[in-house]
């Protein structure tokens, strides 16, 4: 990886930290510790199920909010504030800037997820008093959540490369919602006929399949996640992010910075 | 080898909802800037100065034309390691300190780690920001941001520096310091290309200037040439409180201030004026060719273009 990408990524990470993005961890810790104490008092035999469900869903939602709200400003804010001028007037290629920004945000989300994961396991230990071997699948669920963030980061960057922060937020959030029901969309496409089927199928496969990356419920019920699913989801997320990122680069390479 | 060769750079924007209308921001521009000179790019607001600079920096793509910078194609990223750029009214990552900002830009410009700290210290001292090196830029005044902007433009010791309105936001002392810095850069053998609409700065600093108006080049040349082409007139100054008849006969326009008389005459009348003053036993103080100020030249070029445009319509 080019050193310039590393420098841009580091600076993006530093910006997120200095803008107190990681303060969300405090809210997360308060939410989870409060929930763990509450659940410990009222639940019978389902403490683990509730804590894992609640914890992982919170990890996902907190990350999604950060991915969207930082991602949508990554390019447009730099253009609006003209900070980009002094970066691109150096020997920095435009694609390096986009890729650096992507890795910077992805890095922020990975660090954020890491700390939230510690919180989830701490809450789990508090209510269940011990770990079981099936708890290892919580790590798989967390890994899938990170994959989800990668796709969202690339989408937010794509929209940020040609539209305003507000529209980028709307587009990215809409795709997140639609993608969360991608399986249903595929089922719907299978039920249609003729040209509608073509369009519905194309749409179903074009939107990101976040439902495939959501194994929170299965993991909470102590079901295992197969190695093949892990491989498929990894390849899917990496391919999808790379494609979207390539789109962002193609648009940004041609953009006049007025 | 010229430092900059602009070969017909042109910019036409498509505007409107359907992008069917066009707006020409820059007519085909041909311009050469020699190595080691301070070159002023002058024009009123909206003339096309910033568009030209942005095209040279690769921030805006030209509709047509090309350019060479330091004898290489201007689109090569490696060229940018040799140039510095200060944008108009610069704004930087305000969560960084001045030192961190320069460190980041040094990394992006490929300044080796071992040299970076020394270079940062040097440029911070040069622009007078050493004392606030650890302060976040969000606490900087406009003038301090301008200084930080200049620091980042010269951090990597570029051969060619582009300044877009470098005096903007600076107080008189700050402007003087920037002028001194630009002269120092010239003495170090660097080429300085700067845009401004403050003509006194350009007149004081530039070897050559170009005047641009409504996206079109109106004139280019050495400041000395542009300001000396006053229709062949000289100013004669002598000690006295009255104008002799022989001077009046030469058609002199005279102004008496205290015990000094200034007269403007045609340069062909210069010898006759000297003879007249000798005959009257008046003490000659000076004879100097009358120079047009750059401002007068600038206004003339702009008025000429407006007249031409009016005639065309």
Would you write up a description of this structure?
- The complex is a heterodimer of chains A (258) and B (313).
- By secondary structure, chain A is mainly alpha-helical.
- Chain A is built from 12 helices and no strands.
- Chain A has helices spanning 3-18, 24-42, 47-71, 76-80, 83-88, 94-128, 136-160, 165-180, 182-191, 194-206, 216-220, 227-253.
- In chain A, helix 3 packs antiparallel against helix 6 (94-128), helix 6 packs antiparallel against helix 7 (136-160) and helix 9 (182-191) runs antiparallel to helix 10 (194-206).
- The two termini of chain A are 30 Å apart.
- In chain B, the strands form 3 sheets. In chain B, strands 6-7-8-3-9-10 form a 6-stranded mixed β-sheet, sandwiched between helices. In chain B, strands 2-1-4-5 form a 4-stranded antiparallel β-sheet, with helices on one face. In chain B, strands 12-13-11-14 form a 4-stranded antiparallel β-sheet, with helices on one face.
- In chain B, strand 4 (64-69) and strand 5 form a beta hairpin.
- In chain B, helix 2 crosses helix 3 (113-126) and helix 3 (113-126) crosses helix 4 (142-154).
Oligomer: heterodimer
Mean pLDDT metric of chain B: 89
Strand order of the largest sheet of chain B: 6-7-8-3-9-10
- Main sheet makeup of chain A: none
Q: What is the mean predicted local confidence, pLDDT of chain A?
A: 91
Distance between the terminal alpha carbons of chain A, to the nearest Å? Answer: 30 Å
Number of domains of chain B: 2
Count of helical regions of chain A: 12
- What is the general shape of chain A? globular
CATH class of the largest domain in chain B: Alpha Beta
Query: Structural class, judged by helices and strands of chain B?
Result: alpha/beta
Got a strand count of chain B?
14
The number of domains of chain A: 1
Report the span from N to C terminus of chain B: 41 Å
CATH architecture call of the largest domain in chain B: 3-Layer(aba) Sandwich
Percent in helix of chain A: over 70%
């Amino acid at each position: 990886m080019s050193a310039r990408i590393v420098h841009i990524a580091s600076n993006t990470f530093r910006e997120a930290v200095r803008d107190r993005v990681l303060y969300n961890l405090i809210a997360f810790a308060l939410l989870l510790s409060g929930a763990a104490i509450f659940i410990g008092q009222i639940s019978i035999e389902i403490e683990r199920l509730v804590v894992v469900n609640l914890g992982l869903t919170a990890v996902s939602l907190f990350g999604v909010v950060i991915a969207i709200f930082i991602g949508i400003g990554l390019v447009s804010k730099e253009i609006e504030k003209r900070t980009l001028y002094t970066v691109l007037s150096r020997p920095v290629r435009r694609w390096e800037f986009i890729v650096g920004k992507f890795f910077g945000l992805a890095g922020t989300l990975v660090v954020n997820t890491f700390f939230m994961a510690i919180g989830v396991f701490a809450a789990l230990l508090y209510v269940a008093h011990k770990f079981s071997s099936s708890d290892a699948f919580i790590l798989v669920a967390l890994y899938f959540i990170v994959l989800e963030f990668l796709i969202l980061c690339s989408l937010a960057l794509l929209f940020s490369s040609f539209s305003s922060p507000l529209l980028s937020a709307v587009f990215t959030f809409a795709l997140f919602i639609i993608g969360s029901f991608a399986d249903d969309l595929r089922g719907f496409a299978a039920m249609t006929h003729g040209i509608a089927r073509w369009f519905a199928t194309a749409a179903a496969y074009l939107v990101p399949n976040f439902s495939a990356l959501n194994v929170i419920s299965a993991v909470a019920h102590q079901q295992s996640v197969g190695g093949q699913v892990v491989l498929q989801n990894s390849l899917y997320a990496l391919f999808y992010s790379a494609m979207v990122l390539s789109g962002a680069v193609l648009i940004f390479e041609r953009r006049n910075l007025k | 080898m010229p430092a900059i060769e602009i070969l017909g750079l042109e910019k036409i924007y498509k505007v409107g909802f359907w992008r069917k209308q066009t707006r020409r921001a820059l007519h085909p521009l041909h311009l050469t800037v020699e190595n080691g000179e301070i070159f002023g790019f002058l024009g009123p607001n909206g003339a096309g100065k910033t568009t030209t600079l942005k095209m040279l920096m690769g921030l805006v793509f030209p509709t047509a034309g090309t350019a060479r910078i330091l004898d290489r194609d201007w689109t090569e990223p490696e060229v940018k390691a040799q140039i510095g750029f200060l944008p108009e009214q610069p704004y930087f990552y305000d969560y960084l300190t001045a030192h961190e900002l320069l460190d980041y830009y040094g990394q992006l410009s490929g300044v080796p780690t071992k040299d970076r700290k020394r270079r940062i210290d040097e440029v911070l001292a040069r622009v007078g920001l050493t004392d606030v090196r650890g302060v976040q830029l969000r606490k900087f005044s406009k003038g301090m941001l301008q200084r930080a902007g200049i620091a980042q433009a010269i951090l990597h010791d570029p051969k060619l520096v582009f300044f877009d309105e470098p005096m903007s936001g600076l107080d008189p002392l700050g402007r003087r310091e920037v002028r001194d810095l630009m002269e120092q850069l010239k003495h170090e053998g660097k080429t300085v290309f700067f845009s401004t609409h403050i003509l006194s700065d350009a007149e004081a600093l530039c070897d050559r200037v170009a005047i641009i108006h409504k996206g079109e080049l109106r004139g280019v040349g050495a400041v000395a040439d542009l300001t000396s082409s006053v229709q062949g007139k000289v100013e004669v100054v002598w000690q006295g409180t009255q104008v002799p008849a022989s001077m009046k006969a030469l058609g002199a326009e005279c102004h008496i201030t205290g015990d000094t008389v200034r007269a403007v005459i045609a340069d062909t009348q210069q010898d006759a004026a000297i003879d007249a003053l000798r005959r009257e036993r008046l003490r000659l103080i000076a004879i100097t060719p009358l120079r047009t100020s750059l401002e007068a030249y600038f206004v003339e070029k702009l008025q000429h273009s407006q007249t031409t445009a009016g005639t065309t319509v």
